[in-house]
Amino acid sequence: MTIVRTRIAPSPTGEPHVGTAYIALFNFCFARQHGGQFILRIEDTDQQRSTPESEQKILEALRWAGLNWDEGPDVGGPHAPYRQSERGAIYLEYAHKLVHEGHAFHCFCKAERLEALRQQQQARGENPGYDGHCLQLSQAEVSERLASGESSVIRMKVPREGVCCFDDLLRGRIEIPWSQVDMQVLLKADGLPTYHLANVVDDHLMQISHVIRGEEWINSAPKHQLLYHYLGWQMPTLCHMPLLRNPDKSKLSKRKNPTSILHYQRMGYLPEALLNYLGRMGWSMPDEREKFSLQDMIEAFDLSRVSLGGPIFALDKLDWLNALWIREMNPQDFMQALIRWRFQPAYIEQVLAQVQGRLQRLSDIVDWGGFFFRGQLSLQAEQFVHKKLSSTQVRSILQCLLWACEQSMLWDHERVQFLCQTLAQRMEIKLRDFMAPLFLAISGASSSTPVMEAMAILGQDMVRARLRHALDLLGRPSREEEQAWAHWVADLD
Ligand code: GLU
């Protein structure tokens, strides 16, 4: 009998996404239900986009949600390291083995050739893909070019004819013609693996039995299947989950919905309610009950009852469920939930340091400090009218800071100050005027405690949510405005 081992394999390239928690939840329940293990692996092979801050946030967010892993970069385990950037030598070995055994080849094609090829293919209406140019090189020529130090990548060989068939736990047999499968680069010129090689090697070495992941990876499955075959390994069972969608059915995106788990944490959603809601995405309890705990879900879990219609992530439904969870908590748990949310001494201390100098009476605390605890503020568009700024300028200030906030991996007082000063300077607006709409958007009043510090204390997600809220009120930029404003936020590092 195989031991069930599942994994979540996030790439640390941004904020922890609710889609990651959703996939992690299903992997977690499946493993727990079978008495198996759930593993967390960090897929940070994209060196340019991966950051340790993002990894940290992903770990924190998943832990906050209550999805604890048995093995991972922080807790270790028998298959360590669990961070792909520390496993370089392993991938190198397999890439060379594949070349040696004739399943992969060195490719010396330069970017210009590949780009020209892509354009020709596009003009002919063909699928873009590598044309096998370097497959024709003789062994002697390859050795010579390698010896001379010429840069190359390693690509996998892919049949040009026939159809790849594989089974998906939810979708049954899937067929994809090999002609649609590119001769994927496995090892880049810098010696680092691509997702495909690292993912297959690790899933095998970490003895993953079931790969449960989003449906956007279906088209990668043929490459993976072929790699398992070339390496003489058994492929794990595949299961591609339906993608979460916005209410308009488009793929869940941060343009339309907050997607960061940290946003939900800051806004005061209970982790139990968020998991409950994610559990209802494409799945339901056998008795159709709406409210259930993680433990209930594990006990009743049945992966084959996931339905494939795109599940809609709707905030009003989540609000309803969160309210139900709050209402039905016992008073001690309710108090603990509040403490865990915003009532920890460390947070309160920061807020108090901001307001102390402003209070005449202690009871003024709510007036001065209330916005540190609110979710969305109630604002009116008229409040943003400013004597020195046009309404377009007001919107551009809010939008540029929002962009800067979305791009920034770091978020503290110094960073906020740098962003505000740099943007004000680039936009040729006096800092004092630049800050006016921000006071309103962030604190809800035209004067408050120092707003840059408030932004640092409130945290990036809350700042982002409030800027967005103000922009929704005043009007999001048009395409033309976006283009005209974008240069102000270029290269803010
Ligand atoms: N690193 C991939 C991601 O970010 C993992 C995909 C998979 O589960 O194979 O989603």
Describe the fold and architecture.
With about 500 residues, the chain is mainly alpha-helical. It is about 45% helix and about 10% strand. The protein contains 20 helices and 9 strands. It has helices at about 20-35, 50-65, 90-100, 110-125, 140-145, 195-205, 220-230, 260-265, 270-280, 295-300, 315-325, 330-340, 345-355, 365-370, 390-405, 415-425, 430-445, 450-460, 460-475, 480-485, and strands at about 5-10, 35-40, 105, 155, 165-170, 170-175, 185, 210-215, 235-240. The chain has a 3-stranded antiparallel beta sheet with strand order 3-4-7. A two-stranded parallel sheet has the order 1-2. Strand 1 (about 5-10), helix 1 and strand 2 form a beta-alpha-beta unit. Helix 6 (about 195-205) crosses helix 7 (about 220-230) and helix 15 (about 390-405) runs antiparallel to helix 19. It is globular and about 85 Å long. The mean pLDDT is about 95. Glutamic acid binds near residues 9 and 199.
